[in-house]
Specification:
With 261 residues, this protein is an alpha+beta fold. It folds into 3 domains: 54 residues, RNA-binding S4 domain (Structural Genomics Hypothetical 15.5 Kd Protein In mrcA-pckA Intergenic Region, Chain A, Roll), CATH 3.10.290.10; 89 residues, 2-Layer Sandwich (Alpha-Beta Plaits); 81 residues, Alpha-L RNA-binding motif (Alpha-Beta Plaits). 20% of the residues lie in helices and 25% in strands. The protein has 6 helices and 17 strands. Helix 1 crosses helix 2. It starts with a strand and ends in a 20-residue tail after the last helix. The structure holds uracil. The site of uracil has 8 residues, from helix 5.
């Protein structure tokens, strides 16, 4: 038995929050009876669930797992109140209710997963899973080894140190050049890479995400997308189901403990 709002979001009908509204508006029925209670559970295998009278047929076939290369200048959201271009504008004919897994800034480009599998999306973005995200950043100026080491050890942001990062300089360390780094972080804090680089005195001029967890694709061009392969989906699900990290890893950090779900 699964809570109805979760079931509806997994089915790709709506986001979990929008599904709650559908329920409270009386638009959802289970076995012919209108359901208004948000906690109500149902079994998708045996119960007849309808939204606005239409039977829910949720299944693996209607699940979509999309890898998009977001160009800069697009907002990572389904709807932008400011009417800027959004990642949805790039998906064309995808008719399922997919949404972004996490977020890339307006000015950041790179790989973004989109899915209507609410359970997987929630697991991959939950802080306790520490899914690694790899970025390449063109910095202003050339960071020295000390600066790179500070990034690796963690930078205090909003009173809380970032976790350990893998950092590599991709350009030769010539002092009068701008450096490019590859950085892997395991958190998804707001504008994290930009703020970390700013803190070491080398603001980001250009930022691209090149990997999300086990998923990378050097051939995908900005503005294009593809379905994940069955093998990629399997790896992502394995990552989402793996036991959570127990620890605060960064020194002196008082992180809120992960809430059991
Ligand atoms: N870090 C940032 O600063 N921006 C992003 O979009 C992602 C990570």
């Amino acid at each position: 038995m699964i809570r109805l709002q979760k079931l509806l979001s997994q089915a790709g009908v709506a986001s979990r929050r929008a599904a709650e509204t559908l329920i409270t508006e009386g638009r959802v029925s289970v076995n012919g009876k209108m359901v208004l209670e948000l906690g109500t559970k149902a079994d998708p295998a045996t119960d007849e669930i309808r939204v606005d009278g239409r039977r829910l047929k949720q299944t693996q076939e209607t699940r979509r797992y999309i890898l998009l290369y977001k160009p800069k200048g697009f907002v990572t959201t389904r709807n932008d109140p400011q009417r800027r271009r959004t990642v949805m504008d790039l998906l064309g004919e995808v008719k399922e209710y997919v949404y972004p897994v996490g977020r890339l800034d307006y000015d950041t480009e790179g790989l973004l997963l989109m899915t209507n599998d609410g359970e997987l999306a929630a697991a991959l973005t939950h802080p306790s899973h520490e899914v690694p995200r790899t970025y390449e950043a063109l910095l202003a100026g050339m960071p020295d080894e000390d600066a790179l080491e500070r990034l690796r050890r963690g930078i205090p942001l909003d009173g809380r140190r970032t976790g350990a990062a893998d950092v590599e300089l991709l350009t030769p360390p010539k002092r009068d050049m701008d450096g490019v780094i590859r950085i892997t972080i395991r958190e998804g804090r707001n504008r994290q890479v930009r703020r970390m680089c700013e803190a070491i005195g080398h603001p980001v001029q250009k930022l691209a995400r090149t990997r999300f967890g086990p998923i990378g694709d050097k051939r995908l061009k900005p503005g294009y997308w593809r379905e994940l392969t069955p093998a990629e989906i399997k790896t992502l699900k394995a990552l989402a189901n793996r036991p959570r990290a127990p620890r605060p890893r960064s020194a002196g950090a008082s992180r809120p403990s992960a809430t059991p779900r």
